[in-house]
Amino acid sequence: MIDVPLAVLDLAPVAAGTTVGDALRATTELARRTEALGYQRFWVAEHHNMPAIASSSPAVLLAHLAAHTTTIRIGSGGVMLPNHAPLVVAEQFGTLEALHPGRVDLGIGRAPGTDQGTALALRRTVEGLSAEAFPEELASLIGYFTGEERIVATPGRGDMPAIWLLGSSGFSARLAGMLGLPFSFAHHFSARNTEPAMELYRRHFQPSRWLERPYAMVAVSAICADTDERAEWLAGPASLAFLKLRQGRPEPLVSPEEAAAYPYTTEERQFVADRRVGQGLGSPETVERQLTDLVARTGADELMLTTMVYDLEDRARSFELIAEKAAR
Questions:
Q1: What is the DSSP letter of 71?
Q2: pLDDT tens profile 88-109
Q3: 328 is a domain residue
Q4: Which structural domain, as residue segments, surrounds residue 238?
Q5: Which residues contact 281 (CB under 8 A, 6 or more apart)?
Q6: Angle CA(303)–CA(305)–CA(307) in degrees, nearest 5?
Q7: What residues does the Luciferase-like domain cover (predicted)?
Q8: SS3 for 314?
Q9: Is omega for the bond preceding 282 within 30 degrees of 0, making it cis?
């Protein structure tokens, strides 16, 4: 049994032959279904210049998702702070918190979530593009919510969502601990760094006005189906999409049939195999064993599952099967 709370990280994947509108409607439907299954939170992630991902505007999408659900927490996994002025983020998420009090998470990342050219187009200046400015900008963002900044953020001041730090290395883990904030680690694309980051976070944790003790969530790729073979089949499109992204050729998710027919080289197959290490992939029993082991190794207080498959029904079925293996 998976004995920690479960959450969802969704990227609004765009399948080949469909539209961005189709992808966003599928994400909305998935939020409703996972809420009914008892998932604790539903996050969307900021990415840019990626044809397979439609969640480029988290605040806009989250407003829509919050209006179409009632209890599940909604949030960003995350907003990439180097892309935005802190005041803008404070006003956007202050608006969400004012409209849906107690349901909003603001997950903050320090990477741009895209290439440098696109990051420059977003920010319109090279100032702030470096991660070195992140601690200062984070402090400014929090200050707009708490009223410690000179400028009044309206909405924002007095309407503070739950702030999380996100990371795939030790920097954010250490900073989250020092600030006494909850921390979410991107195990789904940085599996080798997960356990060291968890140790760093807990070692540096200082109690704060927001958190008395460490609270760490691990984001993990999970594709569950009735059999191991079916799950492997469904995982093909995401593996191929990630390979092409790393090759500088991003494109929408192809069908499992097209992914299976792709002529992988030996090196490409090894890349895909390496990426799957430490993730959840297989039948309900297989995934239960994998995720239980992950919790035991990392001490995670919560797991956030991200499931990139071609069809909404297969995506929803994966979350349903995993929910059946979770503690109630």
A1: S
A2: 999 999 999 999 999 999 999 9
A3: no
A4: 6-323
A5: 221, 222, 223, 224, 228, 231, 232, 235, 287, 290
A6: 170
A7: 8-301
A8: helix
A9: no
